[in-house]
Amino acid sequence: MSDFALRVESISKRYRLGSREKYRAFRDVLAGAFRAPLDLFRKKRRARRPEDTLWALRDVSFDVREGEVVGIIGRNGAGKSTLLKVLSRVTEPTEGRAVVRGRVASLLEVGTGFHPELTGRENVFLNGAILGMPRTEVRRKFDEIVAFAEVERFIDTPVKHYSSGMYVRLAFAVAAHLEPETLFVDEVLAVGDLQFQRKCLAKMHDVSHAGRTVLFVSHNMSAITKLCSRAILLRDGRVVRDAKAVDAVSEYVSSALGGSASAEWQDPKTRPGSDGFELLSLGLTDEGGVPMSVAAIEQPLDLRIRYRVTRPGLKFRCAVSFHTRGTCAFVTMERTEQIREGVGSYRSTVRVPGNLLTEGEYTVNLSVFASRGRKSHLCKIEDLLAFQVFDPMTGGSARGDYAEGFGGILRPLLEWQTRFDGAEGAAE
Predict the structure, then answer these.
(1) pLDDT tens figures, 57-103
(2) 220 and 286 part of one domain
(3) 234 and 367 inside one domain
(4) What is the DSSP secondary structure assignment for residue 403, as one 8-state letter?
(5) Of 154, 264, 323, 356, which cross-links 281 as Cys (Cβ 3.0–4.6 Å)?
(6) pTM
């Protein structure tokens, strides 16, 4: 346990659906005594009905080493927030146990740990006391916390008057600056603006490099791949993947979008195609041919198409389209119809250059068609491939060092030129 900050051993959490404790008067107690046999029978029947209980977590086990930054990802309802609540001792597990070393700071949801009637200043010191920090240490960090949260003007205002953004800024600043050994952060960062999110990610990066541990729940896959060295994918309360962040995100994106980085058809009976065309495989790879469904924004992607022609002299062209947010980002196709003289297998490759697509999730459509007086499809497949593009924020994309919102479906890196035409007021 010496090099582990956190150890989770077979944790399960069960909730009973539709049950709550009600106030009972004396007459209710008497009436309950007469109904006891019938209630016992009903309880037994209900106990056999699985829909009355929900297992939010089921046999979850993993270890986190000191200084490791681990992402927790999955769809809504997968058990991510429940896991952090169990680890933070907000709720007790039904089964299993978790061992956490050192001081823990948790940022689970807006306002957790804050008293609404106290001012921001008072809540900073209250949270420091909860974390076991000496008052002198909290006082030493106080100005840095307030400056980071950008709430100087309202620090002596009761936090019940804060907006949700002010709440989360101050809560994160307290959790990150009071030097806990382990920091749990839920998806509350989505409340803040983009500039503050970037500050939070940078701060968590600094926290991890200082030897402290971060467990980070987020739906922002770009943040996960940039910040975390490892990610745990939850599905229906169970761990389905514990791997490098890029690999776990790749599986999550593929399952969420209903596609993957590659597809192959071994059985001739199931191969898509008609009229002499058979699709053998379709895949997205890096420049070296390695399949990938998560790529940095600056990284080129190759779309590789393998197919078989069973009729000599077949004439057609291939086209692919890339879609995001319900919109076609762009289409690329062979400029002219090509004649495939020989019978056999062929391979076509098209490269999508780096710094063309913006951040987000994409799907790929393939269309193989010939023009015989009118358009005739030999093969048409939609949303078979899925991938994600993220911006590592290194300054090498069209964003540069700009941290605010950046719209659009495409984000090409274009050359800008600026020249000085002379002093102000000079003649043209």
Answers:
(1) 999 999 998 888 899 998 888 899 899 889 888 889 999 999 888 77
(2) no
(3) no
(4) -
(5) 264
(6) 0.65
